[in-house]
Amino acid sequence: MNEESATIALRKFRVQKNVKSEKGPLTPAGLLKLVKRFEETGKLEDRARAGRPCVKEARAPCIAVEMEAIASEAASGTRSAREAARRLGLPPSSVRNILRRILQLYPYKLQSCHELLSADTAQREAFAKWAFSKMEQDPTWVFNILWTDEAHFSLHGDND
Questions:
Q1: Are 129 and 122 in contact (CB under 8 A)?
Q2: How high does pLDDT run on average in the chain?
Q3: Can you tell me the distance from the alpha carbon of 55 to that of 120, in angstroms, rounded to the nearest whole number?
Q4: What's the whole-model pTM score?
Q5: Cβ–Cβ < 8 Å for 77, 71
Q6: Of 9, 117, 138, 153, which one has the greatest count of Cβ atoms within 10 A?
Q7: How far apart are CA 17 and CA 19, in angstroms?
Q8: Residue 71: CB partners within 8 Å, gap ≥ 6?
Q9: Torsion-angle region of 59 (φ positive above 0: left; ψ -120 to 50: alpha; else: beta)
Q10: Residue 1: which of 27, 31, 25 has the closest Cα?
Q11: 79 near 101, Cβ under 8 Å?
Q12: Coil, strand or helix: which one is 70?
């Protein structure tokens, strides 16, 4: 493909797609580069860039191993990103970013919940029957409920 045929191809593309401006994202020279890249590699993706690899991706496996080691040492199986950062000599913010963005691990806090006791069965059953009768009266009633896992909830932002 030469530059003249690339220009003609771009003009036809702009007419077909109703692109008014001659200053589109693709120029004849850019189209020639795309065709050349496709002929060489069989793909239109960008080539791998030379240079220093991403530090976060390179350190992700060692952080994952360290987090497992910390969890195995703790009696409760808890893990600490701050402790992993201390052991590996990395900034805690970098460890947290790697955990979140690369390893898809998110921090959470274990909280105690109310245990379901057999003494509560009658109360739970009464609520279920009441809710079912409300849904029979109005099928959209259930969509007006704000479901939450909080024990206490208020409209001004405080919760338990």
A1: no
A2: 80
A3: 53
A4: 0.40
A5: yes
A6: 9
A7: 6
A8: 77, 78, 79
A9: alpha
A10: 31
A11: no
A12: helix
Looking at this protein, which amino acid is placed at residue 104?
Q
What integer pLDDT is reported at residue 128 of this predicted model?
Answer: 92
* pLDDT digits 0-9 by tens, 83-137: 999 999 999 998 999 988 888 888 776 666 777 888 889 999 999 999 999 999 9
Count the neighbouring beta carbons within 10 Å of the beta carbon of residue 17: 8
Write out the two tokens for 128: 């279920």
Of 21, 24, 99, nearest in space to 62 by CA: 99
CA distance 36 to 15: 24
DSSP class of residue 120 equals G
- Alpha-carbon distance values, 91 to 42, 55, 64, 87 (Å): 41, 13, 15, 10
**Residue whose structure tokens are 């479901």:** 147
pLDDT band at 1 (very low <50, low <70, confident <90, very high): low
